[in-house]
Amino acid sequence: MAVVEVNHPLVNHKLTILRDKDTDTKDFRENLNEIAKLMVYEATKDLKLKEVEVCTPLMKTIGYSLQEKAIAIVPILRAGLGMVEGIISLIPTAKIGHIGVYRDEETLNPVYYYCKLPKDISERRVVLVDPMLATGGSAIYAVDYLKKAGVKNIVFMCLVAAPEGIAKLVEKHPDVNIYVAKIDTGLDENGYIYPGLGDCGDRIFGTK
Ligand code: PRP
Ligand code: URA
Question: Does 107 participate in catalysis according to the annotation?
Answer without folding.
Answer: yes
